[in-house]
């Protein structure tokens, strides 16, 4: 169902600007949040930049573990993206379902190089190691990561290119505001 | 044809991840380049982050002028985006058409708060003042800007939301690699 991607084309998983899910794990703790503000930062080795607000539990787990995963969700998951974006994992600590994966019944699978779980049903995944830059983390909530492994759903990404035709439910989603999204649309060559 | 946008919703012009054009001016010099790697960085005051390679003439003009504009192009302009992305303004210096606007016959109009020209036919524009962060500029080619004015084509963006229905030629474009783009697609609420 998914293929591992050569690292030199990993940037293409984010190049078109999808809204993403950030997953994290440290010890027994794990979390997931939605993030609209991410982008590629370099080709080789691939790096990415992402904005992670100070108040998020995700930030605590990134800083503790030094790693995180970027999961690229699709249209079929849009409602879940809003749910995990509107709730805090910190508030679940000590409850019976003590993390958002349990609370929202989200299936995951293991990453290859980091502890963070990867979200099943997404169409691409980038496993990242934090590049510590304390000044910009503190001043701008801006986090940098090196992509150490990447994977994609071969139904919609192969040979370095997206191909969503016939798979509308797997199209990436692009948030505007307040749960209003646009799906990625038609491919063309200029 | 275009409306000025309240700064507190300016992030929505970039939130869905379009490929953009960066325009710059300093003294008699001006330039335009394509950039797929940009994102919002904050809401209020709005800030953005963008990757600008060391070898670009655009970078020289940003560092000299302390400002730049982000223009959001549309499907009708995709060929031009590839053209300005594949050529260097530095190589035109001293020629009869001594900048890319002249060489490619690109109509522009004046920005309200910065010197950089804005590209006519785009669907949104963000006027930015450089937030100088020399370490990340040098180490990662990563530039931050504060958005000091923003505008959008009222046919496709008004009341804080995009509405592309009936205007397919004005849809934003999202680059994958090598001139392969996807247009932004259907809007939906999750």
What do these coordinates show?
The structure is a homodimer of 190-residue chains. Chain A is mainly beta. Chain A has a single domain, classed as Pnp Oxidase, Chain A (Roll). The first copy, chain A, has helices at residues 57-65, 78-85, 100-103, 134-140; strands spanning 2-4, 20-26, 29-35, 38-43, 46-51, 67-72, 108-110, 117-119, 124-131, 142-153, 157-158, 161-162, 173-177, 180-189. In chain A, a hairpin with a 2-residue loop joins strand 2 (20-26) and strand 3. The longest helix of chain A is centred in the first third of the chain and has 9 residues, at 57-65. The mean pLDDT of chain A is 97. At the A-B interface, strand 4, strand 5, helix 2, helix 4 and strand 12 of A face strand 4, strand 5, helix 2, helix 4 and strand 12 of B.
Task: Reconstruct the topology from this structure.
Two copies of one chain form a homodimer.
Chain A: E1 2-4, E2 20-26, E3 29-35, E4 38-43, E5 46-51, H1 57-65, E6 67-72, H2 78-85, H3 100-103, E7 108-110, E8 117-119, E9 124-131, H4 134-140, E10 142-153, E11 157-158, E12 161-162, E13 173-177, E14 180-189
Antiparallel strand pairs in A: 1-10, 2-3, 2-6, 4-5, 5-10, 6-9, 7-8, 9-10, 11-12, 13-14
Quick structural summary:
2 copies of one chain form a homodimer. In chain A, 15% of the residues lie in helices and 42% in strands.
Q: Report the order of strands and helices of chain A.
A: EEEEEHEHHEEEHEEEEE
Give the DSSP E fraction of chain A (strand runs of 2 or more residues).
Answer: 35-45%
Radius of gyration of chain A: 16 Å
Query: What is the assigned CATH homologous superfamily of chain A?
Result: Electron Transport, Fmn-binding Protein, Chain A
Largest sheet of chain A: 8 strands, antiparallel
Low-confidence stretches of chain A: none
Q: What is the top-level CATH class of chain A?
A: Mainly Beta
Quaternary form: homodimer
